[in-house]
Amino acid sequence: MRFSEFNNIYLASTLEQITKKVDRKASEQCNIPVMMISCGNGFILQSEKYSKDNAGQSLQKYTLLKKGELAYNHGASKTKPFGVCYVLKERDEALVPFVYHCFAITNGIPKYWNYSLNTEQMDHQLKRIVSSGARMDGLLNISYQTYMLVKVYVPTNNEQQKIADFLSLIDNRIDTQNKIIEDLELLEKEINNTIINKLVKYKDLVKFSSLYNFAKEGGTPNTSHPEYYTKGSIPFVKIDDLTTKYLVSNQSFITKLGLENSSAWLIPANSILYSNGATIGAISINKYPVTTKQGILGIVPKSDYLSEYLYYFLRSNYFKKEICKITTQGTMKSAYIKDIDNILVPRINKKQQNEILTLLSEITLKIQKEKDMLELYKKQKTYLLKNMFI
Fold first, then answer.
1. What is the per-residue pLDDT for 242?
2. CA distances from 111 to 57, 83, 351 (A)
3. Among 69, 61, 56, 68, residue whose Cα is nearest residue 96
4. What is the mean pLDDT, run by run of 10 residues, along the chain of 390 residues?
5. What's the burial of 106, exposed, middle or buried (CB within 10 Å: 0-12/13-18/19+)?
6. Distance between CA atoms of 115 and 168, rounded to whole angstroms?
7. What is the CA radius of gyration of the chain?
8. DSSP for residue 231
9. pTM exceeds cut of 0.70
10. Calpha distance 356→359 (Å, rounded)
């Protein structure tokens, strides 16, 4: 798929023939920001991910990258198992980890190669040259020299610019869509916090333990319950799965439920899944029976409390502050149910809960619609990346 004004044949090449290596070091006294590559987001400040720069006193393990130059992060991730390559466009200069393969384009438009080097076709090549899986440090066994031998097809600079400008329009729309979602999520949080703060101030307060019938942390299923594992008939939920309000599935599940099964607890549908270890505060409502990993509380609400209401309450700043008060610090942060039980929460009836849900659910629905739209834009970009490059 090409623009109609271009019909010349692409030049077959290797990446090595159109690039030069970048291996410059910064002086120890420089104050250039340390940046890293985030899959799907390009370059981000290291402090955004780790709350601080990890450069330490020595800058010897960092490469000085300039605007318009590229870096290939050969670290495997869930969405990009063969790494990603991005052009630095966020700042004039940045320090990046020396393990990145850094280079400059000598023949072409860097903005174009920012797209071309992240296509499905490129992944197919990298898959063939990976000598083994990820190393202990998470990096793929792809050396700079090996990466430079990948085959590429080079359009004229005019066509590169046209393709890059076109794809940038979609990127800009994706950025706008992300901002729309971000603003709506902020609005939802502000409304939720305002409501919960008023309830805490004016309503009767009871212990959290009075809101549920059962609450227990998950565990690892034993071999006598193979149906509890990910490949079985009942999903085994991990903290990373708690990213949406509802966990839904079209799978057919075992209908005979029990509350005690091996070390993994079979949690009935419409319960609260709340992470109380490591990443504290991730939350979802399971719309089907699940078992959970350690660090996730399965909470079965009493009949006079709606799961949806508890979902919003547990996400409020009030509850988060109370959790911070009881969090234990060890090798891993934890908030134990025996301590959570004593957190004071407002007692309200179902009518009041439904009134709150009517308001918050409309915003949540709007957010989900905007997220669905975002996925359509991303799919459109994926389709174009697959078809606009030879």
1. 85
2. 33, 18, 56
3. 61
4. 84 94 81 86 77 56 92 86 92 91 94 92 88 55 92 93 93 95 95 95 92 85 64 73 74 41 74 88 89 87 94 94 83 81 94 93 92 94 81
5. exposed
6. 10
7. 25
8. T
9. yes
10. 6
Give the H or E element holding residue 44.
strand 42-45
CB-CB neighbours of 161 under 10 Å = 15
Question: Alpha-carbon dihedral of residues 207, 210, 213, 218, nearest 10 degrees?
Answer: 0
**What does the pLDDT read at residue 255?**
37
Tokens 């709150």 -> residue? 356
Q: Comparing C-alpha atoms, which of 104, 295, 163, 137 is closest to residue 216?
A: 295
For residue 82, give both structure tokens. Answer: 């063969």
Measured distance CA(275)–CA(284) in Å, rounded: 9
* Three-state SS at 51: coil
* The token pair that represents 110 in the structure block: 């860097």
Task: Compute CA 74 distance to the chain's CA centroid, rounded to the nearest angstrom.
Answer: 18
Point out which residues pair with 4 in neighbouring strands: none
